[in-house]
Structure formats: structure tokens, C-alpha cells
Amino acid sequence: MRSAAATEIYRRGRVPADRAAYAWWSNPELAELCGASPAVTVGVAVRPATFARIREANGLPPLALVPPDQDAEEFELHFPNDVSLDVLTTGDPDGQGAIALYLAKFGEGVQQVEFRCQDVDRATQVLKENFGVQPIYPQTRAGAGNTRVNFFLVNSHNSGKVLIELYET
Fold first, then answer.
1. What is the pLDDT of residues 59-83, one digit of tens each?
2. Is the pLDDT of residue 14 over 90?
3. Strand order in the sheet with 40-45
4. What are the distances in angstroms from CA 151 to CA 56, 86, 113, 167?
5. Report field, pTM of the whole predicted structure over 0.90
6. Neighbours of 161 (CB within 10 A)
7. pLDDT tens, position by position, 114-152
């Protein structure tokens, strides 16, 4: 039952992101940086109480080390067929962190879709130069679990906008 629910959440996040990023993979350099079939994780923002319940129900998976300035907590869940979810919450529901602001505006749900790549800096340049996609942050920054990240708010055909995170380990 958990696997089926996770697969549906993953699908609902992944489909708009795939639509938004479809043209990106036509660029040989970007396709090489992210791989022919990039690892994708769907990030789901939930309120702190929901976060605690999900974490407990899944055997208390370890929390990722999140830079303190990001006011977030997170852990990953992995399921069959390469379904990965990143469960995110805020430490301060009334705060100004990205997750707190998302929850205040949209409530719980898919907040971001994460694509792993080899070099976030170079991938960001390729997106800017070849697709006119601007990053949220002017420079790649520290992410959870000692990753380097940048974010892109992009249009998704008929699905509004989707927040895509490029990350490197």
C-alpha cells in the first residue's frame, strides 16, 4: 500500500517536471551531465506533525544534514522501480524558510523535483545559455546531505510551474 501511494505521489511530481525538462535532454552536454536516464527524486513538503508521522511509520529513516540557514528537515524514502521521495518540513512553520513559505501558500504536496547531475555549475550555464532558464540562486549552494544544488522555476506545459532542483553529490 505504501509503495503504491509513493508511486502515485512520485508520478504526480515527475510528470510535470519531465514535461518542463523534456527539451533539456536534447542538449548533448546536459544529457551527459545528467545521464541518459537521470536519477529523479520527488520532494514532498509536509507540516511538522505529518513529517513526524511519516518518518515513524517508515522506521525512523535518518535525517539528512541540512544547512542551518535553510530551516528544513528532510529524509528520503526509496521504493521499487527507482521511486524516491524526499520528505521535507520546516523547523519554524511561521518562518521565512522556503518550505515554511511553500506550506503557508500551497499546503502539503509536491514541492520540488530533483535531478541528479555531475556538475551543477556547468548544467546551470547550459540551461542559461541554451534554454534561457534562470536559476533561483546566482551561485550553486550547499544542499542537504553534503550536496551542491541550484533550483529552477520552470513552466510545465498546462501544469503551471514546477520547481526543479539540480543536485550533485
1. 999 999 999 889 999 999 999 999 9
2. yes
3. 73-79, 83-89, 40-45, 109-116, 161-168, 148-155, 141-142
4. 29, 15, 10, 9
5. yes
6. 12
7. 999 999 999 999 999 999 999 999 999 999 999 999 999
Task: Name the domain count of the chain.
Answer: 1
3-class SS of residue 48:
helix
pLDDT value of residue 36:
75
User: At 169, which helix (H) or strand (E)?
Assistant: none
How many residues comprise the chain?
169
3-state DSSP helix/strand/coil % of the chain, to nearest 5: 40, 25, 30
Cell numbers describing residue 113: 523535483
Strands 148-155 and 83-89: unpaired
Structural element, H or E, at residue 55: helix 48-57
Q: Which domain holds residue 31?
A: 2-168
CATH of residue 10's domain is: 3.10.180.10
> Do residues 165 and 151 touch, judged by C-beta distance below 8 A?
yes
Residue 144 DSSP class: G
pLDDT band at 159 (very low <50, low <70, confident <90, very high): low
